[in-house]
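Q: What residues go here?
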């Protein structure tokens, strides 16, 4: 369910255009052993109706941060996507297209044991809400950080569209149930630190940035700027967080453009487009977040990537939001 490399539960990747362009512009490879399996395009789906309440839902014991025990009231799950707030947090509200760090426990309706959980691994998972099953994409937004949620996901919003997940014991017609503890959220409007320290290299950057530190940005490539022939990573402003470690999960906000102007995108939204939301991946597996290794959280980074067989040269402004 989450981007765990230990359990081969596939994600339903939302075809976020700019994120895909970023990946193409910076690497010809995939994401290593990240168990993602693209199978749907979120641009072709609509938000599911969410029923808030507890009628017909299982019972879940335990406090926030503790592995739960789930008991089912019968063999027949409730219809549709159901979300019950077991305990409400006092943090910010999670918005659509956010990136979230969460602990979770997943079980097939009526089963005796979970098919996956982060509690047994001792650490929460980070994921973009456009990179997971539709039941999470629609069921988690609107709730606050610090909340414990009980979510019942019907097969059409879970693994049903993929024919289930036999390796995890999930059938195509199975309703799946999750307890989710929302630990942290990075919303589409979030950016790096407003008090990050600009570097001397920022003055020589071949881009003009519209937007202050701590704010969403757009940028233009300077007229006459030399197209990159190799990957270049420049820290424009240094945050005060811990440096990103190799193989750590990273959430970044970004603005992106091809050098020839043939494509652009942004986690913040650009030219009237809806925000795509922060991008998350493991550092060191061939994605754009590799540029953040050893860079402190809160920093702003410029990435210039050469042309490949798949894409023109590109430029991206990346704000390092957080790690897990």
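A:
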């Amino acid at each position: 369910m989450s981007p765990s490399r230990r359990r081969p539960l596939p994600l339903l990747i939302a075809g976020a255009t700019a994120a895909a362009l970023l990946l193409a512009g910076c690497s010809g490879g995939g994401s290593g052993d990240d168990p993602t399996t693209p199978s749907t395009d979120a641009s072709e789906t609509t938000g599911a109706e969410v029923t808030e309440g507890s009628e017909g839902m299982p019972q879940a014991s335990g406090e926030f941060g503790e592995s739960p025990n789930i008991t089912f009231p019968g063999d027949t799950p409730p219809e549709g996507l159901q979300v019950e707030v077991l305990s409400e947090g006092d943090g910010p509200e999670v918005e659509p297209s956010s990136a979230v760090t969460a602990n979770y426990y997943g079980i097939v309706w009526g089963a005796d044991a979970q098919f996956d959980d982060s509690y047994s691994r001792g650490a929460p998972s980070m994921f973009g809400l456009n990179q997971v099953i539709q039941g999470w994409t629609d069921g988690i937004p609107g709730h606050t950080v610090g909340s414990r949620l009980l979510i019942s996901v019907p097969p059409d919003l879970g693994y049903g569209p993929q024919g289930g997940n036999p390796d995890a014991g999930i059938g195509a017609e199975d309703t799946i149930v999750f307890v989710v503890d929302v630990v942290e959220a990075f919303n589409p409007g979030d950016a790096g630190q407003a008090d990050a320290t600009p570097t001397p290299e920022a003055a020589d950057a071949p881009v003009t940035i519209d937007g202050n530190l701590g704010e969403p940005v757009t940028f233009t490539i300077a007229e006459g700027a030399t197209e990159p022939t190799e990957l270049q990573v420049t820290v424009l402003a240094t945050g005060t967080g811990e440096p990103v470690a190799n193989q750590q999960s990273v959430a970044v906000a970004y603005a992106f453009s091809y050098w020839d102007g043939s494509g652009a995108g942004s986690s913040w939204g650009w030219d009237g487009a809806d925000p795509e939301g922060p991008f998350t991946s493991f550092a060191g597996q061939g994605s754009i977040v590799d540029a953040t290794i050893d860079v402190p959280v809160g920093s702003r980074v410029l990435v210039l990537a050469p042309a490949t067989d798949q894409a023109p040269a590109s430029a991206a402004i990346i704000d390092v939001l957080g790690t897990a």
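A: Context that may help when evaluating the design: The longest strand covers residues 176-186. The domain at 197-323 is CATH 3.10.50.40 (Chitinase A; domain 3).
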